[in-house]
Design a protein that fits this description.
The chain has 221 residues and is α/β, with parallel strands linked by helices. The chain has one domain: Vaccinia Virus protein VP39 (Rossmann fold, 3-Layer(aba) Sandwich). Helices cover 33% and strands 18% of the residues. The protein is built from eight helices and seven strands, in the order ααβαβαβαβαβαβαβ. The chain has a seven-stranded mixed β-sheet, sandwiched between helices. Helix 1 crosses helix 7 and helix 2 packs parallel to helix 5. It is globular. 37% of the residues are buried.
């Protein structure tokens, strides 16, 4: 696929999923008992040592893919430690443009369903949390696979003073916004205009003429 050939999201869901409130409230009132995977625990332990010995701001870049966004954010925040997390070793091992090489970032292969819980338990002082262009799982029946419909959502909203999501499917962000509202968290949804693409996906969407949106919220003071 060339950079200008990215297809828009197609879904059988026209509005916020009718089961969203029940799903989110169930997760808020249930204990997430899934065991932590060994590989994620080991990966967390390694980066946890970096966090504990770092005096500056911590930024988390979830679902970072090839790590382009992690490097760009690190370049934009030279005094911060930026940690990019993705479940795919194949994606994390790919090369990126030489001009994005900086030294204040760290890439981690881990399952975020486990990693988020470890971050919360360790009380990481995360300043900013990014979830950029997550898999939208556009079929209505897959709503529980979206981050705001997953069992780990109550942990996600405990990570970072601020959170920012981006998507080319506005409904995904509207649903996440509705899930935040259930937790009494205000958020703002805006169109992205003339912004530097943070990920290869965002670059493709822009080149294809697709509109992208950002959802931002302050989680903690």
């Amino acid at each position: 696929m060339s950079i200008g050939d990215s297809k828009a999201i197609v879904s059988n869901q026209q509005g916020i999923n009718e089961n969203l409130d029940a799903i989110v409230n169930k997760h808020f009132n249930s204990e997430f008992k899934k065991p932590i995977s060994i590989h994620t625990q080991q990966a967390f332990d390694q980066v946890d040592a970096l966090v504990k010995n770092f005096a500056g701001a911590i930024i988390l870049d979830s679902c970072c893919g090839v790590g382009q966004s992690t490097r760009i954010i690190a370049k934009q925040n030279p005094d911060a430690l930026v940690i990019g997390v993705d479940k795919s070793d194949n994606r994390l091992s790919r090369n990126v443009e030489q001009q994005l090489q900086v030294d204040n970032y760290h890439l981690v292969r881990a399952d975020l369903n486990d990693f988020y819980r470890l971050v919360v338990a360790a009380k990481w002082p995360v300043d900013k949390h990014f979830i950029l262009y997550p898999n939208p799982w556009p079929k209505s029946k897959h709503v529980k696979r979206r981050w705001h419909g997953s069992a780990v959502f109550p942990y996600i909203i405990q990570v970072g003073k601020t959170i920012e999501l981006r998507s080319n499917w506005c409904l995904y962000l509207q649903e996440f916004q509705a899930a935040l509202a259930i937790a009494n968290i205000d958020s703002k949804l805006t169109e992205i205009v003339s912004a530097q693409p943070l990920t290869p996906f965002e670059a493709k969407y822009q080149a294809s003429g697709q509109q992208c949106w950002a959802l931002t919220a302050r989680i903690k003071s």
